[in-house]
Amino acid sequence: MTGRLVVGLGARAGTGAAELAAAVAAALDAAGLDPAEVVVLATVDRRAAEPGVRAFARDAGWRLAAFTVARLAAQPVPGPSGVVAAAVGTPSVAEAAALLAAGPAAGLVLPKRRFRGVTVAVARTGARG
């Protein structure tokens, strides 16, 4: 097995820890990924400051990585969104955050998946392609 997993997260403001946990669990399960491999939860800085996101990362035992809109916008992603760009200022939060936190040799193992108000993407560190 190569690398560890990074969960990228986009969510509506004020989303609670339980909703975030349910969405991430559903995404990992659908992709056949082991939650024990996840080491980082990554998102946009303003979302990382929210109590629900902080509680979810803490309860899961994952490091929380936060990125500015500018850093996220500079990260190429396979699924950019004009709607997200208009609302947030970057065409991707979940995919871009996952890839940035996973490092330069990262690859997406789960492109963005949407769940009621939550978007999840997963990258593997050390992956190529």
TrEMBL record:
Annotated InterPro entries: CbiG_hydrolase, CobE/GbiG_C, CobE/GbiG_C_sf
Domain CobE/GbiG C-terminal: 5-123
GO biological process: cobalamin biosynthetic process
UniProt entry keywords in alphabetical sequence: Hydrolase
Gene3D superfamilies: CobE/GbiG C-terminal domain (3.30.420.180)
One Pfam family named in its UniProt record: CbiG_C
Gene Ontology MF term list: hydrolase activity
Keyword flag Hydrolase: yes
Protein name per Swiss-Prot or TrEMBL: Cobalt-precorrin 5A hydrolase
Native organism: Actinoplanes regularis
